[in-house]
């Protein structure tokens, strides 16, 4: 693995205090952060002049459906139920393993170009997505997606078998048990998910309380809210990560926070599907661990974590006060909080010893000028166009805004989406 020396890069410590440092990246980690690297540190390293750049933690996307990039813009401007049953599920039924590989590759390209190096993926044909993640140099929590509404009993059994064998896990790829939701998975299968996760040491990730309809249907069917239902199943604990969490009662907040579970909010998707606004101030006040994700490109319609981060901060403020969710906290929700939820305990921060996942942000970009406060500029003013380079696991995955093979990736996705739409 190549040793990299970042010379004279701007770094923000606590508060608004900024300084220029040298950073040595070795063995996939930030080996040294200091005033000036020694000749011994620089020996054998590629030296990169970073006097124009700031270093910031790369984004971690806590919830997405990567290959849904192929469905981007296919069906918009309708509510969740109709959108899923009349458009998305019939389109998805046509997807082959090869299509999913093409869609995942486009998703990873888009994520890299917008500064994301990790994503939690809930989808089908996981082997293809795992292959793309390995090839493109990023990280992922790949879901073994469980749904007895959307898959045959044979596929369900194959999924549980896959989990038992821990197939295809690696340094950058982890498997996670991903039952779709309480409305797409029955009681007995959810119980099995909880048992498998417990016995094999897996995390559980699911959609939770996304719409009022989901909550009301659950109450009718099981006599309790989706959060209470997961609690009764014994699945609610610090290894439980739920997407959306829009419609939580006070009791849901109390149970969820008490269990140490993480809520991955997806505000863009919730607004676009008119599902509601995640109650960020109430979740924060109740002590719920908060992270962010984009959801799929069919409901967002992009995979840009920066947009998600800024929107979360703005929604928190309009729901409470201007002091709610300051820039630094919003940045943590899009980086270190996601990393911790998915078991990457030494990632998502720029500090010695941490995994070297980072962005080089161009301080000469007009959006970053002037720079009174780097984090504030980044959260409220910056966007993808400010990102010059992206580092994952100590290696450049984008440099000077270029990602290897990007033209071919886009061309394959265009052809694939066109074929599917006309099939
Ligand atoms: Zn989702």
Question: Can you describe this structure?
Answer:
This protein is of the alpha/beta class and 423 residues long. It folds into 2 domains: 97 residues, Urease, subunit C, domain 1 (Roll), CATH 2.30.40.10; 283 residues, Metal-dependent hydrolases (TIM Barrel), CATH 3.20.20. Helices cover 39% and strands 22% of the residues. The protein contains 16 helices and 16 strands. The strands form 4 sheets. It has a 4-stranded mixed beta sheet, with no helix packed on it. Strands 5-14-15-16 form a 4-stranded antiparallel beta sheet, with no helix packed on it. Helix 4 links the parallel strand 7 and strand 8. Helix 3 packs across helix 16, helix 12 packs across helix 13 and helix 13 packs across helix 15. The radius of gyration is 21 Å and the shape is globular. The N and C termini lie far apart (45 Å). The mean pLDDT is 96. The site of zinc ion has 6 residues, from loops.
Secondary structure layout:
Elements: E1 4-12, E2 18-26, E3 29-34, H1 39-42, E4 46-49, E5 53-57, E6 59-64, H2 80-92, H3 97-113, E7 116-121, H4 126-136, E8 139-146, H5 153-165, E9 173-179, H6 187-200, E10 204-208, H7 212-222, H8 226-233, E11 240-244, H9 250-259, E12 262-265, H10 267-272, H11 280-285, E13 289-292, H12 305-319, H13 327-334, H14 336-341, E14 358-362, H15 374-380, E15 387-392, E16 395-398, H16 406-422
Parallel strand pairs: 1-4, 6-7, 7-8, 8-9, 10-11, 11-12, 12-13
Antiparallel strand pairs: 1-2, 2-3, 5-14, 14-15, 15-16
Helix pairs in contact: 3-4, 3-16, 12-13, 13-15
The structure holds zinc ion (ZN).
């Amino acid at each position: 693995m190549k040793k990299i020396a970042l010379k004279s890069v701007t770094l923000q410590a606590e508060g608004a205090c900024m300084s220029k440092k040298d950073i040595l990246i070795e063995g996939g980690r930030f080996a040294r952060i200091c005033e000036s690297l020694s000749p011994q540190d620089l020996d054998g390293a590629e030296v990169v002049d970073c006097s124009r750049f700031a270093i910031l933690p790369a984004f971690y996307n806590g919830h997405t459906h990567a290959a849904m990039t192929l469905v981007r813009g296919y069906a918009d401007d309708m509510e969740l139920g109709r959108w899923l049953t009349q458009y998305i599920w019939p389109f998805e039924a046509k997807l082959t393993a090869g299509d999913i590989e093409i869609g995942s590759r486009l998703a990873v390209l888009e994520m890299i170009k917008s500064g994301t190096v990790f994503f939690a993926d809930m989808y089908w044909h996981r082997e293809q997505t795992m292959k793309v993640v390995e090839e493109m140099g990023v990280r992922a929590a790949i879901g073994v997606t469980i749904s007895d509404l959307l898959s045959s009993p044979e596929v369900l059994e194959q999924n549980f078998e896959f989990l038992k064998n821990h197939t295809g896990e690696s340094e950058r790829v982890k498997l996670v048990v991903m039952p779709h939701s309480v409305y797409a998975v029955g009681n007995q299968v959810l119980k099995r998910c909880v048992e498998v996760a417990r016995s094999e040491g897996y995390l559980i990730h699911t959609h939770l309380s996304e719409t009022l309809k989901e909550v009301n249907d659950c109450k009718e069917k099981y006599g309790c809210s989706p959060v209470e239902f997961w609690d009764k199943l014994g699945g609610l604990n610090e290894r439980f990560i739920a997407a959306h969490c829009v419609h939580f009662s006070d009791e849901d907040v109390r149970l969820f926070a008490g269990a140490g579970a993480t809520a991955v909010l997806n505000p863009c998707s919730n607004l676009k599907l008119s599902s509601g606004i995640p109650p960020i101030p109430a979740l924060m006040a109740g002590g719920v661990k908060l992270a962010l994700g984009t959801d799929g490109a069919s409901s967002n319609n992009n995979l840009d974590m920066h947009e998600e981060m800024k929107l979360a901060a703005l929604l928190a403020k309009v729901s409470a006060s201007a002091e709610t969710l300051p820039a630094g906290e919003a940045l943590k929700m899009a980086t270190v909080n996601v990393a911790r939820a998915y078991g990457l305990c030494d990632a998502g921060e720029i500090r010695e010893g941490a995994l070297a996942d980072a962005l080089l942000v161009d301080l000469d970009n007009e959006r970053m000028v002037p720079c009174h406060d780097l984090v504030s500029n980044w959260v409220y003013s910056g966007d993808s166009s400010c990102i010059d380079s992206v580092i994952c696991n100590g290696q450049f995955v984008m440099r000077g805004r270029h990602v290897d093979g990007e033209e071919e990736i886009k061309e394959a996705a265009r052809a694939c989406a066109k074929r599917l739409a006309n099939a």
